[in-house]
């Protein structure tokens, strides 16, 4: 059994997270997220602010009824009606907490609450006592503690604990603090408040300066034993400290932190995806832990290191946070080792170094043109190397497409086929479809179109369109690339290029393809 303290994880995705402009959630969505947080084994789920609206009340009540393994918490101002409404919403919870708060910074007391510091202490004490009528599990927050005077904070908190608060939360409401200062605040509060040992000290950090996680972790090092956080760092303005980053920092650096969480980390990525899909807030690819690139390696030196020993470039295991595996992304920065290994995984073995070097050179050429190289691209590349490169059999000479609302799109095409110009027309469901049908009439590949993708190479409506066409016939796959500012012409070039490759047939290398 570990001798370490438990770090309580308090998730506020459904309350502070929902305060992100545009992140409102329906009752059903909140219950789905709450169930996912329960699977994560979050200790406390702050489900909402019941007195904000009837909808919020019902959502908190629904979460309280459907989650059994986590404590359900509701937020209330230091106002009786807020606290009572919160108590009612939580009535059916297996374990309930009322979280009441009032601001303690000079600016908030003077300008917002328009209360004297003495009145605020009285309101805090009255609020905690009122909440204690509903439950023993009461949390009190000094809103804007990060800009409050330390002596005054000590006074308010001592009284709140005396009134019955069992968790004292120190929010950096506006994300103003820096780690050393915030850690020192926590250390001093714990040292100076005479009854500090009767409460768990918590922190709630906002990310206005990008320091929410760093501030929270410094607070933990200095004695805080609850962190308030959200999935994907969702929350008011720049958001809150992100749950996944806090949890994985504490877990990964057990040499630094004197405590541990009970979070079931393989549920992190599923929870992140759920929150992202419900709120519509995409996770940036380079976001720590849950970003698509968090465990992806593209550069050759890293890939080579990873293939020799994963720990050369990874401090966590992708599987431990819910990814299936880490990823080796094939792109223009990849090296021979990763290229060869990936192809071996696809069942393709090179007999000689020359073959490897030749295929690798063509891979680099392709990677310079195409942003992402998929397995199918590698297969196509190898498949192409098995045939002598001949001069292109087909060449686009002229293309005119016709589209008009309510009319069937058509294409008029001239191609050079083995040096001879040939013309045709075709109709289709769109200009690209009509063009492909016209080309097929002249080149007659009999293939299946496996992929048609368009990338804008640069930004703006005048950008070059880069089109990839992948054709398959009898197990053989080829890619054709075409670029033009007109995407229909780019598409035609790509199809013509793929058709030329598919119908070229002289063997070129001795690649041994297995299972391809
Ligand atoms: C830092 C945070 O995240 S705090 C939580 C933020 N969450 C929310 O605000 C939840 C959504 N809010 C709401 O739906 C509404 O603001 C309500 C229902 C809470 C209140 O609505 P209204 O009664 O119309 O008040 P309004 O929002 O205009 O102003 C807030 C009032 O609460 C007072 N107040 C603010 N915080 C507190 C507090 N902790 N304790 C007591 N009073 C407070 C303000 O001084 C102001 O009072 P005033 O009307 O006498 O000037
Ligand atoms: C209500 C409190 C805890 C809050 O969200 C904040 O101060 O940021
Ligand atoms: Mg907040």
Automatic annotation (TrEMBL):
Keywords: Amino-acid biosynthesis, Branched-chain amino acid biosynthesis, Cytoplasm, Leucine biosynthesis, Manganese, Metal-binding, Transferase
Record-listed Mn(2+) binding positions: 16, 204, 206, 240
Cofactor: Mn(2+)
Pyruvate carboxyltransferase domain location: 7-269
Region annotation Regulatory domain: where it falls in the sequence: 395-516
GO terms of molecular function: 2-isopropylmalate synthase activity; acetyl-CoA C-acetyltransferase activity; manganese ion binding
BP terms from Gene Ontology: L-leucine biosynthetic process
InterPro entries: 2-IPM_HCS-like, 2-isopropylmalate_synth_dimer, AIPM/Hcit_synth_CS, Aldolase_TIM, LeuA/HCS_post-cat, LeuA_allosteric_dom_sf, LeuA_bact_synth, PYR_CT
Keyword Metal-binding: yes
Catalytic activity: 3-methyl-2-oxobutanoate + acetyl-CoA + H2O = (2S)-2-isopropylmalate + CoA + H(+)
Pathway membership: Amino-acid biosynthesis; L-leucine biosynthesis; L-leucine from 3-methyl-2-oxobutanoate: step 1/4
Signal peptide extent: none
Pfam families: HCS_D2, HMGL-like, LeuA_dimer
Keyword Magnesium: no
GO cellular component entries: cytosol
EC code: 2.3.3.13
Its biological purpose: Catalyzes the condensation of the acetyl group of acetyl-CoA with 3-methyl-2-oxobutanoate (2-ketoisovalerate) to form 3-carboxy-3-hydroxy-4-methylpentanoate (2-isopropylmalate).
Similarity comment: family membership: Belongs to the alpha-IPM synthase/homocitrate synthase family. LeuA type 1 subfamily.
PANTHER family per UniProt: 2-ISOPROPYLMALATE SYNTHASE 1, CHLOROPLASTIC-RELATED (PTHR10277:SF9), HOMOCITRATE SYNTHASE-RELATED (PTHR10277)
Subunit structure of this chain's protein: Homodimer.
Name of the protein this chain belongs to: 2-isopropylmalate synthase
Originating organism: Pelagibaculum spongiae
């Amino acid at each position: 059994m570990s001798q370490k303290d438990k770090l309580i994880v308090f998730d506020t995705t459904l309350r502070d997270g929902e305060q992100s402009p545009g992140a409102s959630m329906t009752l059903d969505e909140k219950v789905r997220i709450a169930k996912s947080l329960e699977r994560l084994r979050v200790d406390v789920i702050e489900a909402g602010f019941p007195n904000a609206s009837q909808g919020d009340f019902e959502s908190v009540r629904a979460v309280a009824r459907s989650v059994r393994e986590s404590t359900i918490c509701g937020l209330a101002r230091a106002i009786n009606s807020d606290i009572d409404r919160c108590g009612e919403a939580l009535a059916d919870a297996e374990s309930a907490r009322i979280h009441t708060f009032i601001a303690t910074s000079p600016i908030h007391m003077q300008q917002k609450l328009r209360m004297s510091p003495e009145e605020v202490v009285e309101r805090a004490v009255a609020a905690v006592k009122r909440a204690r009528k509903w439950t023993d599990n009461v949390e009190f927050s000094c809103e804007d503690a990060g800009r409050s005077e330390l002596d005054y904070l000590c006074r308010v908190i001592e009284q709140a604990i005396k009134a019955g608060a069992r968790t004292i939360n120190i929010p950096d409401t506006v994300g103003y603090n820096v780690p050393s200062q915030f850690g020192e605040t926590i250390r001093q509060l714990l040292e100076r408040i005479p009854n500090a040992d009767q409460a768990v000290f918590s922190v709630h950090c906002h990310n206005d300066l990008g320091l929410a996680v760093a501030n929270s972790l410094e607070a933990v090092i200095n004695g805080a034993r609850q962190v308030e956080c959200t999935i994907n760092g969702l929350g008011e303005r720049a958001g809150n400290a992100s749950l996944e980053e806090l949890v994985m920092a504490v877990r990964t650096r057990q040499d630094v932190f004197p405590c541990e969480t009970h979070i079931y980390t393989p549920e992190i990525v599923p929870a992140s995806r759920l929150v992202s899909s419900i709120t519509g807030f995409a996770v940036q690819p380079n976001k720590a832990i849950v970003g698509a690139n968090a465990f992806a390696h593209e550069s050759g030196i890293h890939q080579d290191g990873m293939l020799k020993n994963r720990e050369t470039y990874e401090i966590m295991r992708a599987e431990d946070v819910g990814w299936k595996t880490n990823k080796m992304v094939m792109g223009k920065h990849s090296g021979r080792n990763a290229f060869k290994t990936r192809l071996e995984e696809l069942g393709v073995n090179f007999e000689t170094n020359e073959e490897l070097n030749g295929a690798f050179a063509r891979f680099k050429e392709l990677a310079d043109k195409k942003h992402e190289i998929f397995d199918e691209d590698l297969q196509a590349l190898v498949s192409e190397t098995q045939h002598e490169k001949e001069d292109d059999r087909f060449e686009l000479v002229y293309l005119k497409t016709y589209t008009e609302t309510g009319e069937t799109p058509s294409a008029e095409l001239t191609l050079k086929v083995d040096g001879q110009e040939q013309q045709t027309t075709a109709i289709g469901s769109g200009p690209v479809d009509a063009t492909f049908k016209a080309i097929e009439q002249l080149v007659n590949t009999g293939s299946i179109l496996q992929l048609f993708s368009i990338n804008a190479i640069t930004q703006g409506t005048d950008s070059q369109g880069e089109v990839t066409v992948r054709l398959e016939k009898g197990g053989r796959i080829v890619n054709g690339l075409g670029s033009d500012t007109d995407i229909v012409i780019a598409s035609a070039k790509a199809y013509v290029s793929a058709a030329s490759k598919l119908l070229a047939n002289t063997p070129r290398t001795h690649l041994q393809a297995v299972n391809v």
